[in-house]
Amino acid sequence: MMPRITKLFLIHVVCCLLALDNLTAAESVIVADDKQSDNKSTIDLLTTVADYKQNLEDIETRSGAYSRELFEPLASLAQALVDADIYSEAEQIIDRGIQISRINDGLFNLHHLNLLKLAINIASRTDDWDKANDRTDYLVELYRYSYKDQPEELLQSLQAVSDWHWTVIARDDEDNRAMHLLKAHDINLRLVDIAQSQLQPNSTQLNKYLYRQALSLYYFSATMAVGGRTGTRVLTETSTLGALRPIEGLARFYPREFEYKLRQGMGLLEQIVDSYDSPDDVVSEAKVMAAIYLADWRILLKDGLNVIGKRSPLARAQSTYLQARENLIALGYAAELVEHYFETPALLPVTEFTESFEKSIELSLGIQTTTFEPIDTDSEHTKLTRLPDFIAWSESLLGVTMPTARGVSLSDELADLHGDVRFRVNTSGKASRLSVLQHVPPEQSNRAELLREVQALVFRPALINRRFRNSEMMTMRYYYPLDYRFR
């Protein structure tokens, strides 16, 4: 049977993939939909496996070792073996099924797509990450060849692979974390190229892919800020300075490269904002939201560079938020709702681009506009504001939420290592006056680890009246990164 800790990770990976709005379970990179029913015993599974094997022998005797007729029974046998936790034999059956598919239908064909996904799932379950990564590389090529004339399917499929690379960063070996970041970024660049080839110049439909590319750049800068093997490899692989000298010389390149990645990302956000320009200069909701995303990026830029002055990124962000607040109210949104949105600190960067203010409220603050109730300003402020839960990503990406974690429903196993913290967000978007309220389980408390991560978080500061101010005290539940759990 698989170890409990591996089960924990698989639940998390599958939940993350199923949470994607544009993907169904069948379209996810990792199939991982165990079809074993609750009342099906191990004996029943082994009997099923034996029946499949006998059926295969009969077909092979009748039609030959490479008959196309063997493929479906092989696929069914592979799934039955996975259900019985017999992974080694399942992999052999999968390899045989893929070989038969290639012989009969060509090297790149979608006939064996589900088998390939199942193979990636098995490799992930058994911590064979070299094999999982190799098979995922082949999956990318399979998608590119099979969907070359179907851009929508290609975009959706490649985005799922990019999400897979982001998701498994915390589970693969530390030496491979940078590789996953780099491969996800490369796929995100391809998504932009594919979308551009299908859309009109300056089409706003391109923006969600441009934003993913910007996120990749931010993740590069975030891991460079942490340093270590992951940050060093990202730096050397993406440096604009050519081949870097030995490690002792890397530190002096960090500030320049760190800033360059952030400014590249801001350039993409400016491109998004420009796409909403119109000849009559009408202010649309989409344009307002794009401006907010750009202001958010200026907060991130300020945090990375500690720039000060009247026209610092922080000052420019404040000006943009003020204008956006006025525009949203002019567009018909309730003043109480808009003010609550800007007065409540939000974790940055937001992991998904949206043109909808209501969707932004859900993404940033975790609330639905239909259930929003204005705060009674006459009551005593004795209740702390509760921010959305923070699901940490990786120790190599300190202070960055897992981008594929939105909408995950945490099981008891996933929720078994967390802490509740209290803090306020200062005018620079950083947590201050931190304290730990409780930790689960108490005996595994690592107060220093928890506080270090929360101090690294970047928030949109509270905009109260016409300026950034220190927020009220707030609470947040922090879930430890998966690589911390697996240590």
What can you tell me about this protein's structure?
- 55% of the residues lie in helices and 8% in strands.
- It is α/β, with parallel strands linked by helices and 487 residues long.
- It folds into 2 domains: 4-277, Serine Threonine Protein Phosphatase 5, Tetratricopeptide repeat, CATH 1.25.40; 385-485, TolA/TonB C-terminal domain.
- Strands 2, 3, 4, 5 and 9 form a 5-stranded mixed β-sheet that branches. A two-stranded antiparallel sheet has the order 1-6.
- It is globular and about 80 Å long.
Q: How is the secondary structure organized here?
A:
Blueprint: H1 4-18, H2 42-63, H3 71-83, H4 87-105, H5 113-125, H6 129-146, H7 151-168, H8 174-198, H9 207-226, H10 228-238, H11 254-274, H12 285-305, H13 313-330, H14 335-343, E1 346-348, H15 357-365, E2 385-386, E3 390-391, E4 418-425, E5 431-440, H16 447-456, E6 458-460, E7 462-464, E8 467-469, E9 474-479, H17 482-485
Parallel strand pairs: 2-9, 3-9
Antiparallel strand pairs: 1-6, 4-5, 4-9, 7-8
Helix pairs in contact: 2-3, 3-4, 4-5, 5-6, 6-7, 7-8, 8-9, 8-10, 9-10, 9-11, 11-12, 12-13, 13-14
